[in-house]
Structure formats: structure tokens, C-alpha cells
Amino acid sequence: MDDASSVDRRPESGHGPIRRTALHDTLVNHLRDMIIEGILEPGSRLHEGQLGEQLGVSRTPLREAIKFLASEGLVELVPSRGAVVKRFGAKDVQDMLIVLRNLEELAGKLACRLASDDEIIQMRALHDEMIDRYRAADRLQYYKLNQEIHTGIVRLAKNATLSEMHQMLQTRLKRIRFIGHEGAEKWAAAVAEHEEMVKALEARDEDRLSEVLGRHLGNAWERVRSAV
Question: pLDDT digits over 105-124, tens only?
Fold first, then answer.
């Protein structure tokens, strides 16, 4: 099993030592993906020994990664039980989606007013890449690009407070938003809504973009409510 100290050794390539943060980021991303995909199910305990053996790392970097996921709201640190994958109830999910919906409706209007032409072109490129992943039936990469688009629209609003609040909620809803694409019909509907979004942004039609985003987030609840 690799120890945390192993990441400080200079590789033979001579490119210099790998940063400790590289291992931390890799572990955080990997564990987050396992939660998103349901490999680590809501309510399940994170056994450091088993996970460490599975991932080939020692407990110290693994524990740090779990603590980071707890700061994101994806994991709970429960007395006597240790780290547990956060389980959100239906009311929690609905409440968060309501707030997320209002944040994105506002962000859409601001983005249409404030985004540069180049920034809008970049959003179209992200959308096209997402569609490629959809056609390849690559759900996880599709989902990551999907979330990047939502984050990107909020970023184009150029409001740091809005971005901070949105990021917190989007992170906590990662698993929920992922299961919203389960089933061909739900997935196709979500893709169609994203196509409407990018077209509205390209037209700088703030009312239309705000409406589509609001409808998209409203539909997100309908797509996941039976699962929560």
C-alpha cells in the first residue's frame, strides 16, 4: 500500500516531486465520483481500512479527503459511527432545488447582460462536448460537463456571492442531480432543455434563459422525487 510520504519522492523522469495536493485532489475526486454514481450509497459508512486497501493509499490522506467531502456536505462525521455518506430527505432535496432554481434564474438574466462574446462561445463548446458524451452514453462525463455548464452560467453573472451560494448547493445535490438522468426519456428531456439554454444565451435573451433554467430545475425535482 502506498504511504502518503511516497508522493514526495522525485520520479525518475526528473520533472520534480509530485505535490501532496495531487494525491489529495485525486482522492477527493475519486471518492466524490463514487458517491455520485452510488457506489458509496447514502447512509453507508466509509471504512477507512477497506477504502485504503481498495484505493492503494494509507489512512492519513484518505482521512483528509473524507474530511474535505464532509466540508462539502457530501459526508457526515457521526459520533460512534465515523464518516457516513450524507443522506438527504425529500424535503431537504426539494428545498435546495427551490433555492438553486431561483439562483440560476437570476444568474441567467445577469449572464445575458454581462457575458462577453468569447465567454458565450466557450459555453457553446462545453455544450457540444456534453452532447458528444450523451451520444456516447457516457453518463458520468456527461454529468460533469452538465454541471460545468450550470456553474459556467452562474460564473458569467459575475457575482461572487451568487457563485458561492450556488456552488454549495450544487455540491450537496451532486448525487441527486446524477440520478435525474436515469432512464432514456429523462436523459433526453434534460438534454433538450440544455439545448434551449445555450440558444437563449447565444441570443442574449435573458427572460427566455431565466425561464428555461427555472423550468429545468423544476423538472429536476420531478425527475428525482420518486428516488428520494
Answer: 999 999 999 999 999 999 99
